[in-house]
Amino acid sequence: MSRLGFGKSASVRTLKVAEFRSKMELSKNKLLIDVREPDEYKSGFIPGAKNIPLSQMEKRLGEIPKDRDLLLYCRSGMRSKSAARILSKHGFTRLAHLQGGVSSWNGKLSRR
Q: Which residue from 38, 96, 103, 109 lies 20 to 30 Å from 18 (Cα-Cα)?
């Protein structure tokens, strides 16, 4: 088990903002994924996030490494939870998503 508390079970961790930020800072082997649509992503995203929309998730599984801590978020938390379920179904185990989504995020956002 990694020191982040990601185990081998396929459960999806729902993290409050402070926990999510802590995981982002502590994990040396993470991938931050924004599952919103590209136009939503461009309007403001957490720095370092890769945009893989929920609508494209199953087609883009090859872009997502199974050996990393996957931190997912969307606007409100619903799509990221669905994305985590899809990933879990495909054998990904190190999954967490941001409760309340980017709407609850009080940190810096980048724009494209």
A: 38
- Burial letters 28-62, b for 16+ CB under 10 A, else e: eebbbbbbbbeebbeeebbeebebbbbeebeeeee
SS3 label, residue 23: helix
Contacts of 20 (CB under 8 A, 6+ apart): 71, 73, 96, 98, 99
pLDDT in tens, 43-89: 999 999 999 999 999 999 999 999 999 999 999 999 999 999 999 99
Query: Quick check: is 74 catalytic?
Result: yes
Residue reference for tokens 């982002």:
24
What's at 5, amino acid-wise?
A: G
Q: Label the pairing between strands 50-51 and 30-34.
A: parallel
Q: What is the C-alpha separation between 75 and 98, in angstroms, rounded? A: 9
Q: For the whole prediction, is pTM greater than 0.85?
A: yes
Contact 51, 31 (CB under 8 A): no
Q: Active-site residue among 32, 74, 87, 102?
A: 74
